[in-house]
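Posting this for the archive.
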Amino acid sequence: MDLGSSNLLGGYKERIRVESSLRIDADRLRAISQTRLDQVSKAASNENLKTSFVKAKVLENYLKVGIGDGHTIVCDEDPSMGGTNLGPRPLQYFLAGLAFCELTIYTQYAAVMRIPLQRLELDVRGLFDIRGKYGVENKFPGFQEIQLELRIDSEENKERIMKLVDTVHERCPAYNTLKGNVTFKGKVIHNGVQINTFEMAPTILA
């Protein structure tokens, strides 16, 4: 099965074109956010429970596909693990999911708070002991620490930027799902200058 030339993988990397400058339609996003807030505030509790769903399956060895809302993603392992390197590894998707979710909330609340952005980037690194995956010495197999490096360029002052950071950490679904089990360490870089570092230990949810 020649997956490398299939329609499934064709253009996978080429679909994304990296822009040199950030473009955000803040007025549009602010209006949408306000409309959604009004809808959520008026809806009954059970109407606000939403489901995210992805269907995944193995194609060959470690090569997998996932489908969500009509979008197809490809996942694999590198050759040293027995894969064919036709897509990112599972934990890279895991970290990307966190990054994408945080960046979505950053974009949303920057628009709501009328904070102009010229750059918005987030690096995410996860630290784990690989022995846990193989059942060696009863090591915990999950991430022990996740490191975040946020880079924001904005003419807004650093106090407002940190208010945005705090708002995102309060409201990002992915971040709040994980923070009960992993230590987060991070730094905030505003216009090329580090303005804050933080460390958040796991929070045990009641």
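The helical segments are 26-42, 90-112, 158-171, 173-178. The chain is about 30% helix and 25% strand.
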